[in-house]
Design goal:
By secondary structure, the chain is mainly α. The chain folds into three domains: 25-294, Orthogonal Bundle (Lysozyme); 306-364, no CATH class; 382-427, no CATH class. It contains 18 helices and six strands.
Length: 428
């Protein structure tokens, strides 16, 4: 990866660390409707939200993380912790154009912010925390898991003209977990709320939730970040708006009279979680680009490789797995956007299958259709034969009653028509 482009900008020497709001970030599989007070989280377990941040972290250094719980993810993924109102604010109309100044047309988006990923005081603070206690193990898991998705994210960002450093936003958003769900209802690698996801072309309905599709959600996030940069002219302000919403950041700019994020972070116009969100991303970026420099020895997982094949509508994943000989868990992991574990009922679907499985699935899907056509030939002949027998019986004045095929009587039985009782009495 390319080296960082700029020198460090140091904050005022007397700047005290701001308290971090515990995150409402939960692991995959949690209900999107689950709610919890903002104070709930790892901070409460290691000293309580009323303690200063330094004391909370000191207590956390001595604590042991419960097995299977990403406490550091819960503590630091502030974007997921932001309330629904803050994230949905991104869908509101923008204030008057005079509130912000867009970057000049000659300034490339990837070079507009020369101060990203800088090791200033706040970034160094979080660099230390990421290397401390059980948090180191959590960050190592993030770095290991990043191997699956980071190459794809970097490729998408390169195509969109975004700086590669922004890719490590995912580390703070979701810990590179593509099915992460927050208690506020944000989902996926990029923790989109549903209104913003729909605004950027993602399907979110009963059958599909493309926030859980790593590639599609990454494309949407790249477009969203690019739009935010167009509005604010700074990647740091764009990241802050990604966390808190455009309206909140624009209000802070007007109130503080500055467009410098680090100055805004020292004032009262932004919430603490947003103030810390950007330096956390910078710290994650520095570690992600040079993990060995910060003492992390990890072997990233291999990138995901898969094929895509058009599958008929309303096809259960269990049937697809049986036809192609694919483990069901692998199929569900590749297609986590399918909420009902089947393709949507109204159209065919481009299903992801493990590399080398598409041909077997294609053959399996064609086999039932061929068998259906072969079986239709004798059924059509039998139908024509029965129709002929009914016609002859009607001409003879009787009604045909067909017995089951397993009956000993193979020929149809003629049943005489019922006579009118009044006519019988008249005849007598």
């Amino acid at each position: 990866m390319k080296t960082l482009l700029c020198a460090a900008v140091v904050l005022a020497a007397g700047c005290a660390p701001a308290a971090v709001h515990p995150a409402n970030w939960v692991t995959s599989g949690s209900s999107a409707l689950e709610t919890a007070p903002e104070s709930a989280g790892p901070a409460a377990a290691v000293g309580g939200p009323d303690l200063p941040l330094t004391q909370q972290l000191a207590e956390g250094n001595r604590a042991t993380a419960p097995e299977g719980v990403d406490l550091w993810a819960e503590f630091f993924a502030q974007s997921s912790a932001s309330p629904a109102s803050a994230r949905v604010a991104a869908t509101l109309p923008q204030p008057e154009a005079t509130a912000v100044t867009a970057p000049t047309a000659t300034e490339p988006a990837a070079q507009a912010a020369s101060d990203r990923a800088q090791p200033n005081d706040r970034v160094r603070f979080f660099l230390d925390q990421f290397q401390t206690g059980y948090r180191r193990a959590v960050v190592e898991r993030w770095l290991t898991r990043s191997g699956r998705y980071l190459p794809m994210i970097l490729e998408v960002f390169q195509q969109k003209g975004l700086p590669e450093e922004l890719a490590f936003t995912v580390m703070i958003e979701s810990g590179f977990d593509p099915v992460a769900v927050s208690r506020a209802g944000a989902k996926g690698l990029w923790q989109f709320m549903a209104p913003t996801a729909r605004r950027y072309g993602l399907h979110v309905d009963r059958w599909l939730d493309e926030r859980l599709d790593p590639e599609k959600s990454t494309v949407a996030a790249a477009n969203y970040l690019r739009d935010l940069h167009t509005v604010f002219g700074s990647w740091e302000l764009a990241q802050a708006a990604y966390n808190a919403g455009e309206t909140t950041v624009q209000r802070a700019i007007r109130g503080a009279g500055t467009r410098d994020f680090w100055t805004l972070s020292r004032g009262r116009w932004l919430r603490d979680e947003t103030k810390d969100y950007v330096p956390q991303i910078h710290a994650a970026t520095l570690i992600g680009q040079e993990p060995e420099r910060y003492g992390f020895a990890v072997t990233p997982e291999q990138p995901l490789h898969y094929e895509q094949i058009a599958v008929p509508r309303a096809t259960p994943l269990q049937r697809i797995a049986a036809l192609a000989g694919i483990p069901l868990k692998d199929l569900e992991r590749l297609n986590s956007a399918l909420r009902q574990k089947q393709t949507p009922p109204e159209r065919s679907y481009q299903l992801k299958v493990p590399l080398g499985s598409a041909l077997a699935l294609r053959v399996g899907l064609q086999r039932p259709a061929t068998a259906h056509k072969v079986a239709a030939v004798p059924r059509a002949a039998d139908h024509a034969k029965r129709k002929s027998q009914v016609t002859k019986a009607a001409a003879a004045g009787g009604v045909l009653t067909f017995l089951p095929s397993n009956s000993r009587i193979k020929a149809p039985v003629r049943v005489p028509r019922q006579q009118d009782p009044a006519r019988l009495r008249a005849d007598r």
